[in-house]
């Protein structure tokens, strides 16, 4: 008879499989989301129990559970985003148009007309497909994985093309990686919707042990999915930037933390700076590595000057470059120059990562913001380079604050994280493909 797993969106089982869970499905979950539950009459978290159980309360449940919004962000990081889905849609549509004579045949057209469906292939654009997906999901979530039976429920869409490809949620290729379909569907689901992978029956059947970490096992054994499953490598200008980015990601987006690896240049005494970061990126391009990489440059004159050296560099799809985003705090920030102290907009001139830390940590002992000091002048760009004073003190204050939050001595909510949120929002946007050429 076998043992089965089930994937649920809310309380609807949208997918099931036998004997083992594939690495592609496990790639959207984390072992930190693994749950083991001994249910009680008042605590039934799952709508499913193995068929072999006479009493659904008799055993232990094993499952992974996370939010729909978390999976959507994870897929974007993997490169499974709407931009890529659109590219694939248009490519496969052209193939069907040119090669699939059966689909275009009059015999099939007559069959679908008899069922009340419209031959809409000529108008079957990416936008129309998205509209049909949204309507189909209102009928039943099972349409995501082609599990909807009977398919008569889809007839109200009146789309011959969607019906023909209903096994792939209307996408014009039956063999598309289901994660692309899931990514599209998630745009039409509530962010807080629970997504649950229940593998209780597989444990009961002996396919997995009670202590097995399925996600870790999948990563170890999935050579074919290397590019999608491996972590995104983050590079930045300063050696002190890495722990700041790592710790702030863990605090702000804990569900994404294990999808990133932060290069620690301090371990090997490597030099920092924008020019050195450009050299690292060029070296990675020349090595033709498959890892996904994002290089984070400061929003200052030095970074802008260094990035000119990459203008003629063709970046591969897996390597992205970004600058720190516009910062509201920096629009009127205290500066020190030859004419004294004044408040100026230092965006693009002096915004290193320190300025994006909570402003509560940017204050000197007198309670004033550490100012930016103007240093050199770049003739080619026609602008000054600035640097915030008190960097060592700011970095120390940040590391102490993170430690205090971890130990429960202060609350995360006591600090303003808008700057760092903006950094990671920009990082996710770039990874999703927001910049076609990968350059800021």
What does this structure look like?
- The longest helix has 18 residues, at 82-99.
- A hairpin with a 2-residue loop joins strand 1 (4-9) and strand 2 (12-18).
- This protein has 440 residues and is of the alpha/beta class.
- The mean pLDDT is 85.
- The chain is globular.
- Helix 2 crosses helix 7 (178-186) and helix 11 (241-252) packs parallel to helix 14 (391-406).
- Helix content is 34%, strand content 17%.
- The protein is built from 15 helices and 15 strands.
- The chain folds into three domains: 4-76 and 191-221, no CATH class; 81-176, no CATH class; 230-432, no CATH class.
Summarize the structure.
The protein has helices at residues 23-26, 68-78, 82-99, 106-114, 126-139, 160-164, 178-186, 200-204, 214-221, 226-229, 241-252, 274-287, 301-307, 391-406, 418-432, and strands at 4-9, 12-18, 34-37, 61-67, 194-198, 232-236, 260-262, 293-297, 299-300, 319-323, 333-337, 340-344, 350-351, 372-378, 383-388. By secondary structure, the chain is an alpha/beta fold.
- The coarse overall form would be globular
Strands of the biggest beta sheet: in what spatial order? 2-1-5-4-3
Number of helices: 15
Approximate strand percentage: 15-25%
Order of helices and strands: EEHEEHHHHHHEHHHEHEHEEHEEEEEEHH
Number of domains: 3
| Largest beta-sheet characterization | 5 strands, antiparallel
The structural class is alpha/beta
Return Rg in Å: 26 Å
Give the N-terminus to C-terminus distance in angstroms.
56 Å
Question: Which consecutive residue ranges, at least 5 long each, have pLDDT under 50?
Answer: none
Count of strand segments = 15
- Secondary structure: helix percent: 25-40%
Arithmetic mean pLDDT: 85
